[in-house]
Write a structure and sequence with these properties.
Layout lengths: L4 H20 L15 H17 L4 E7 L3 H7 L5 E6 L3 E3 L2 E4 L6 E11 L17 E12 L9 H6 L4 E6 L4 E2 L12 E6 L2 E7 L1 H19 L10 E3 L7 E2 L4 E8 L2 E8 L4 E2 L1
Parallel strand pairs: 1-11, 3-7, 4-14
Antiparallel strand pairs: 1-2, 4-15, 5-6, 5-11, 5-12, 6-7, 6-8, 9-10, 9-13, 13-14
Helix pairs in contact: 1-2
Length: 275
Amino acid sequence: MNGTAGSHMVEVGALAARQLEDYDTHQPGTLFAEGCVLNVQQAYELQNAVAKLRFQRGERLIGYKVGCTSAAIQAQLKISHRVRGFLFDTEQYESGVALARQSFDNLAIEGELAIELSREPREEDFADQLLPPCISRIFPVIELHNHVMRGQQASAGELIANNAIHAGFISGKGGLTLSHCSETMFDGARLEVFVNNQLLGQCEGQFLLETIRLSLKWLWQDLLQSSERLHAGQIVLTGSVPNLFPVVDECCIRVESVPFGDVAAAVKNTTLRTC
C-alpha cells in the first residue's frame, strides 16, 4: 500500500473489493496467504474501505465490537492490544437461531456482554469506577468468528483488516436497563459459556464491569481519532474474558449471564434456519 495518493486509493479499493469477495465466499483474507503485510493504520484503512462497500450494497452499521480485551485472548491470538470492528445489521441474529457451520471459515465463538448506548459517551462518563451513564442496556451475546490467520505470523494488521475476525453475533433476550443495574450487582455477576451442556469458560464479579468500562472508554477514545463517532442506539460488544472456542461439529451453544440473561444457538451442518 504505497505510491501516490491516487494510486494508493486505487490499491486500497482493489484490496477492499477482494477482501469482500473472499468474505462473501467464506474464505476471508486470502491476500495474507500471499505475503500481504499491513501495519495497524493500513489495516484500519482497509477495514473502513470494505465497510464502505458493504454500506453501498445496503448493509447498515449498528455498532462496533471491541476485541482482544483480556490477557487470555491476547495470548491466544498473539496480539498485545485491543482492536475494533464493525457490526452490520445483516449479521445480527436472535437467540434460538440455528447456523450453518459451512457459512463460516473455522467457526469459533465467544460469550460476552454487550451494551446499547443511550447517547454518545463523554469524558465525564469515565471519571469514576461506575457504569458509564451513556449505557441504556446490558445483555449477553454469542460472538461468531472466522478464526483464520493466513499470514506466516499472526499479526494485528491481518486481524484488523479482517474486521477483527468478526462474523456476526447472536443477541440475548431481554437484558437489564441501566436503571436496574448497580455496581454492587456485579459482585455476584457471572458469565458462563456452555457447548453441548459442557462448561468451557467463565468469568465473574467485577471483571465483567471492568471489561465494559475499559472497552467502551477505549473504543470512544479510539474513534475520536477518526471521523467515526458512537451514537444512541448503537450496540458495542465489549469483549470476552474467557477464551475463544472453536466449533468443529454440530453443537448447541449457550451463554448464561446472571443477572443479565442468557442466549443460545445451534450450529448445524446444514443451511441456515430458525429454531
